Amino acid sequence: MKRSFIVIFLVSVFTSCFSQDVVTLEQAITLALENNYDVRIAQTNLKAAATDNDYSFAAFLPQLNAVGNYTVNDTDQEFRFENAANNRSGNAKSISYGGSLQLVWTLFDGTRMFATRERIEQLERQGSLQVKEQMVNTIAAIITNYYDVIRQKQQLRAIQEQMLVNEERVKLAERKLEVGIGAKPELLQARVDLNAQRASIVQQQTLIVQLKENLNTLLDMKLPVVYDVADTILINTSLQREEVFDKVNTGNYSLLATQRSLFISQLTMRERKAERLPILNFVSSYNITHNDNVRLINPFSALQSDFQGFNYGLTLNIPILNGFNTQRLVQQSKIVYDRQQLLYDQQRTTVSAAARNAYINYQNALTILAIEEENILLAKENVSIALESFKRGSTTMIELRTTQQSLELAYNRLINARYNAKVSETELLRLSGALLK
What Gene3D superfamilies does the record tag this protein with (predicted)? Predict the structure, then answer.
């Protein structure tokens, strides 16, 4: 009865796995780049910077304004002359309205407009680098989570494989007890170990479900409610130190974005220095005015008058003294530039150290993986020999259980070694920007 239960349980586990849709790593990455919130937020910031850059040419265009006016004058007036008979007083009312077109075109502002446009363009490029940086970080997170699910699946299969050995232990202990050459404590211990592995399977399945949910969260829940992943952890064992370090120096998006910030601060300083220079503007306007004198006191005033005209010229604004505000802004921009230089140097050192450590971890992980792959074969062979010896009665239950525990530890080390090697590889590719093709 117990044997039937175990068989049914294992069949149900494997049937459940094979009945689920398998999501590949490439599919998960594609969904993440389309739906991950951090990526979408970075892309939104880039759109804002791109919009500013699209209109940056306006710094070279003139300003054209239309002005309209409508005025009513209602005043009491009194005119006195030497001849009192000519004195006049009363209420006068007039209405005037008109409009004008005013144009101001900056011809020279100390090259500030050029620096401003270039700074806006660099902000868009920096935004593009920040989007790529977020994409690389997201891809690395997807790879890490995806292979963590595979790691736990492999751990589940290892537990199931070891449970088969424990089932055999239980059957052998029962037979020995039936023929009078066994001891009940051995049977009880075998059943305890078997039940412990059953509980471990349930816990492992729960952990796998939770990890799948975490992976789905990174994809904005775009995966099916129930899905499966691949079974194998694929590792690139051919990464070369020189090639990786060259890519880190030229392709690390975080470092490139920081370098772009340094250039932007340099352009800001150039803008501030331009404020010390004169500003030459071309100005022009076209004016139309109409006056209606509704009530007149002065008989020499016109009932209506119309004015229209066109004027143009140049204005030169020479900054002389503004409370040393320009000097203060120039000094502040220089401080910002120096600070950005320090941040860039710091980031370059940090990335370089991270790359060196990542490559050391990568090499060590591959070495450990090779050792554990050899070790698992030895542990399996040892359990097989111990089980056969136990059947013949030449090995005790304690010795068999010890070999099982060694196999369990060997499985754990091997599975973790595979995962750690993949994580180390992923970190190297993330630092070099190679995850984004």
Answer: Outer membrane efflux proteins (OEP) (1.20.1600.10)
Distance CA 5, CA 11 (A): 10
427 close to 358: Cβ distance less than 8 angstroms: yes
* 219, part of any domain: yes
pLDDT score for 393: 78
Instruction: List the structure tokens of 418.
Output: 């595979």
For residue 16, being part of any structural domain is answered with yes
Per-residue model confidence (pLDDT) at position 123: 95
Sorting pLDDT into bands at 50, 70 and 90, what band is 360?
A: very high
Q: What is the DSSP string of 300-358?
A: TS-SEEEEEEEEEEEEEE----STTHHHHHHHHHHHHHHHHHHHHHHHHHHHHHHHHHH
Instruction: Extract the tokens encoding 102.
Output: 């005013």
Rg value, the chain, Cα: 41
Contact (Cβ atoms closer than 8 angstroms) between residue 184 and residue 153: no
Give the pLDDT score at 4. 39
Q: Is the pTM of this model over 0.85?
A: no
Q: Which amino acid is at 154?
A: Q
The answer to the question of residue 383 being in a domain is yes
**Mean pLDDT, residues 190-215:** 93
Q: How many residues does the chain have?
A: 437
Cβ distance 32 to 219 under 8 Å?
yes
**CA–CA separation, 184 and 85 (whole Å):** 144
Using CA atoms, how far apart are residues 59 and 381, in angstroms rounded to an integer?
Answer: 78
Confirm if 67 and 97 have CB atoms less than 8 A apart.
no
The per-residue DSSP string of 211-235 comes to HHHHHHHHTTT-S-SSEE--S----
Question: What is the DSSP code string of 104-172?
Answer: EEEEESTTHHHHHHHHHHHHHHHHHHHHHHHHHHHHHHHHHHHHHHHHHHHHHHHHHHHHHHHHHHHHH
Q: Which domain holds residue 214?
A: 2-61+111-284+321-432
| β-strands 21-22, 227-228 pairing | parallel
Query: Which pLDDT belongs to residue 210?
Result: 95
pLDDT at residue 336 above 60?
yes
**Residue 274's CATH number:** 1.20.1600.10
Distance, in Å, from the CA atom of 346 to the CA atom of 362, rounded to the nearest integer, reads 24
Does the pLDDT value for residue 78 go beyond 80? no
What are the residues facing 77 on neighbouring strands? 90
Give the per-residue pLDDT at 5: 39
Tally of structural domains, the chain: 1
Each residue of 398-407: pLDDT tens digit? 888 889 889 9
Tens of pLDDT, residue by residue over 52-68, are: 999 988 889 999 999 99
